[in-house]
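Batch job 17 of 40 flagged for manual review because the log was empty.
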Amino acid sequence: MSVRVTTLPSGLRVATDEMTTVETVSLGMWVDVGTRHEAREINGVAHLLEHMAFKGTARRSALKIAEEIEAVGGHLNAYTAREQTAYYAKILKEDLALGVDLLADILQHSAFDEAELKRERAVVLQEIGQAQDTPDDIVFDHFQLAAFPDQSLGRPVLGSAEIVSSLSRDTIRGYMTGHYGAANMVLAAAGRLEHERVVDLAQRAFDVLPAERKTTTDAARYAGGEKRDERDLEQVHMVIGLGGLPYGDPDYYAAAVFSTLFGGGMSSRLFQEVREKRGLVYSIYSFAGSYRDGGLFGVYAGTGENDVAELVPVVCEQFHRAAAEIGAEEMQRARAQLKASLLMSLESTSSRAEQMANHLLIHGRVLPTEELVRRVEAVDEAAVRRVVKRLLATPPTLAAVGPLRRLESLDAIAARLA
């Protein structure tokens, strides 16, 4: 990686990674705010703002934005997460100036037209309805809510239909002007580019961003709990989890290695025991999710109504067996999977741009690939056992959607994990 970072006088950081073997550029603006920075009464505003940014500016209509990027074969998109919002594009190298100009326009001059807001609000309501109708999607919102009750980190990214229906133009604009400041934003670009040119384009295009916006949020307080959503479905969709680790925790990479060997692939413990040996599921996997001041570790599974009674004890047993039986061979396999995933991602301009931005927002610097590989390779069996014990010391969280009459109580699950 040939990463260079320049901080503009406004505080905006411009990060580039030159890749001479490609003909494209991926670039985007990552903003250090997301759903957890919303007040309860406007939950969903960060996501609706992300939609509205593409719906017209002082210079371009929504159609014109779409036509300009697609006229050069590029694409423009965005996403909202709990701690970040991103707006990004992929273009041919000769269209870099257009990409920067489009991002600057939508992030500085969005019109928030009332007619467009009415239409886009309806689109987001459709998105909320679709999520509600997708059990293996909504179960993760239930899981988040149960794990972090009565706090911003537990609320859904999309918000609720009731709140989104009431969000006004002034509320959306106010959230943007109150949270989007140059000092908490990163413009990242990777591909066939020159760092100095990207810096020059950014300096000229992002000329009216406010320098700084101080954002606050309540601290993450993992509590554990349950959310059951009884529905007449063919399957039970379930997430069982525990309190996880924040980004800066010394055991962060050990948790990633554990998640990989526990439920990260076809050779993982969960896949082999639950699917291959017992045939209880089609899909099962584990995940380790981190935030700045907290985290989650969970296992998702989709299983039949009658199989859930056998599935839950097996998953709980596997936690304990992992803490006691981790071997050198599976450790090496898990480390190899993580390293391969990391190194393969470097072949993608989009992945490189996103990684740079995330590192700068979270760590204040771009972590070299060599350092990341060293951290993964340094994880040993003792570190993974320590992580499992730390996870099991937290109260469990359960979220489930479907026919739940045979799903045992949270107290019973807690006893199995104790």
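Reviewer: the log was empty due to a logging misconfiguration, but the result itself is present. The chain has a mean pLDDT of 96. Unflagging and moving on to job 18.
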